[in-house]
Amino acid sequence: MSEIAFLLDASALARIFYDDIGKTNLDNILNYPDSILYTPEIGIIETVSALLAACNSKDISLKEYTLAVSAHYNMIEKEELNVLSLTDDYVQDCISILEQYKTKPEKGFNGMDAIYILLSRMIAHTVSGANVTVVFVTSDTKLYNACQEEPSFKTFHFWTCDLGCGHIEHIPKKFAKEKPARYAKCNNCGAQVLVEEAHESPNFCTICGKLCPDCSIDVCPSTYSIDFRRWS
Question: Which domains are present in the chain?
């Protein structure tokens, strides 16, 4: 099998350090023996920001945040995570990438995210001719969609699951919940009045109809496992 060069964005790096949907996929990537991990310098700042956001939302405690940041720096010091610097002309290159994708439906990612495409291209160019596959890892769906057009590298959405049935690879809508219609009794006539329409979850299998009614780590039924041969 070929070596895999994984470029991880901040959403991926932050989830290495606490439980969330897709954590199993990230653990498998980290444990894959024939791989090397990369992130840009700005990715260090963004990862700390993502961990602080998790702390603010009570997904992790302040102590867990401190330990996660320390572990993140430790990965860099041990060269388990390789930090990439940008070239002098990266600003114009990133603007060109934004102009390529920003106006396309479902591919309008944020400005700083163009850096990840630029660096994925750069790594792919550097290893061209070698037995190495470049894979960009993210949970940003618009960025993921844009990267599907890139010919020089692959991309992987680390939320990918199998809904527990194993029939398809599914990228879920996080926190989506199945909700029944809600009615209330009219005080004047006593009739039941529709107050809120039913909300169907988009997280279902297109083959067997298996529904994931609540997309959260606590009840995630996925048994998905990455087949790394897809990138060999």
Answer: 3-159 (3.40.50.1010)
pLDDT of residue 28: 96
**CB neighbours (10 Å) of residue 124?**
20
Contact present, 7 and 137 (Cβ < 8 Å)? yes
- Cα–Cα distance between 64 and 200 in angstroms, integer? 35
> Which of the residues in the chain have pLDDT under 50?
none
Q: How many Å separate Cα 74 from the centre of its chain?
A: 22
Mean pLDDT of the chain: 91
Give this prediction's pTM: 0.89
DSSP codes joined into one string, the chain: --EEEEEE-HHHHHHTTS--TTHHHHHHHHH-SSEEEEEEHHHHHHHHHHHHHHHHTTSS-HHHHHHHHHHHHHHHHTTSSEEEPPPTTHHHHHHHHHHHHTTSTT----GGGHHHHHHHHHHHHHTTTSSEEEEEEE--HHHHHHHTT-SS-EEEETT-B-TTT-SS-B---TT-B-B--EEEE-TTT--EEEEE--B--S-B-TTT--B-SB-SGGG--------GGGG-
